[in-house]
Amino acid sequence: MADLKKLVDELSKLTVLEAAELTEMLEEKWGVSAAAPMAVAAMPGAAGAAEPAEEKTEFDVILKNIGPKKIDVIKVIRQITSLGLKDAKDLAEAANSKVLEQAGKEAANDAKAKLEAAGATVELT
Q: What is the mean pLDDT of residues 93-116?
């Protein structure tokens, strides 16, 4: 079991940017969002630091790997983008293709969830 006091001491030494990077890494690993708790945690240490960056509101949904269920992924791409069959197939087969560009946070997360449920590997940028 980790020594929690030691962990707290180490985390207290992080800069605001390092804490934000850690938050992103944990969100990605655990599949959760810690935006509100992070803002509260950053307040005391941010007194002399630069203002925190604004929360990103627009995301690109990038298809990293189509996975074993190609047809299911193509169906989801057609549903999300309203593309025709050929265009959706071409998009699915292209490496690192953008399924959505500058989509809102909710739409991007919804698209990511649907694509991952179909077996694809997806990244939000």
A: 89
